[in-house]
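dude i think i finally got it to work??
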Amino acid sequence: MTHDPADLTLADYLDGAREMAAAGSPFLAHLLAEEAARRVDDPATARSIRAQYTDPTTDRG
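look at this
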């Protein structure tokens, strides 16, 4: 992993989101996934990423 956030890739953000979700940190997973979605040019892919990691503070199940 890099120490400069500017060097992070889409895959780095998605890996981090998966790790945070597995570690029981859904809000951090959401933030990382949101950044990944911002880096995607395809709107459908961005929506898919956001759908997988919804904001736990607004998700009322």
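Residues 10-52 form one domain.
im so relieved honestly
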